[in-house]
Amino acid sequence: MNQSRQHQYNYLFALIILFSKKAQWYMSRKLANPHSSHAKAIQLTFEAKGQGHSADDYMVEDRVNSCVSCDARDGLTVHHVVPDMYRRWMPLVIKSKSSRDLLLLCKICHDGYEGHALKLKKQLVKKYDIALEGKGWIQRPDYRAARKAAAALLRAPEKIPQSRIEELTTTVDSFAKGEGWTDLKWTDILSKCSELKDTFQGPDFVEHGECVVGQLMQNTNDRGRWPDLEEFVKQWRQHFLDHLKPKFLSSRWTVDGDIYTA
Ligand SMILES: [Zn+2]
């Protein structure tokens, strides 16, 4: 048995021990026998194919819990090679099982890479003409003036000169009249004004990632897949390799590894 096949079997045994009901299921169908050397394991009588990953694929490997860049064992985080702000808008056949693009990094390596990732995101801002904050924000300077005036009046009116109090009061009062808040008590008006948001997402708001992925999905090939989106995933994988130069990442993890789950 070669090494990768051994890995595949080890993995299956571990799973089967965990799910012993499943072991019973296999044995009752004569698909497995009690394992010769593991008391609690069974031996499959057929060759498991997994999810179509070949024996030399990264996905069938045993992996250790350490940083793929520096091998540190502490302070590990799961790093999304394709940032979540993009991945979340991708079709299920890509994002539902993107474990290939989830890699362990320690906090130091992760933080070190994030600066590089931000540079790439800023290039994408230009290429796809969409700010990182998204577009469709609505700004209301009148809300802002009313909120600030109300907040000042609520905070410490005794510290404000009388002439300024009158100005602030006029600002809040005329705003409240404009909003038709004529029946409200002054304290309620102040409190409502102090909670106003002067910047908010309008009805046509679109997030950066949503806009980028939307453009990447405009071209489909004859198999109904998205070549531009595939290139985008590979671009992030290559970027990750180029900038982090991960010394402890399996050589089976490649830029061209599977993108789709089926
Ligand atoms: Zn590290």
Strand order, biggest sheet? 1-2
Q: Please provide the count of β strands.
A: 6
Described by strand count, sense and barrel closure, the largest sheet is: 2 strands, antiparallel
Low-confidence stretches: 14-18, 46-50
Beta percentage is 5-15%
Name the helicity range.
40-55%
The ligands found in this model are: zinc ion
Going by helix content, strand content and strand pairing, the class is: mainly alpha
Mean pLDDT metric: 85
What series of H and E elements makes up the topology? HHEEEHHEHEHHHEHH
Rg over CA atoms: 29 Å
Span from first to last CA?
Answer: 28 Å
Bulk shape: elongated
Total helices: the number is 10
Protein name: HNH nuclease domain-containing protein
Organism: Phycomyces blakesleeanus
Structure description:
The chain is 47% helix and 11% strand. With 262 residues, it is mainly α. It has three domains: 1-62, no CATH class; 79-134 and 207-262, no CATH class; 138-204, no CATH class. The strands form three sheets. The protein has a two-stranded antiparallel ribbon. A two-stranded antiparallel ribbon has the order 3-4. Strands 5-6 form a two-stranded antiparallel sheet. α5 (107-128) packs across α10. Residues 14-18 and 46-50 have low confidence and may be disordered. Bound molecules: zinc ion. Zinc ion binds at residues 67, 69-70, 72, 105-106, 108-109.
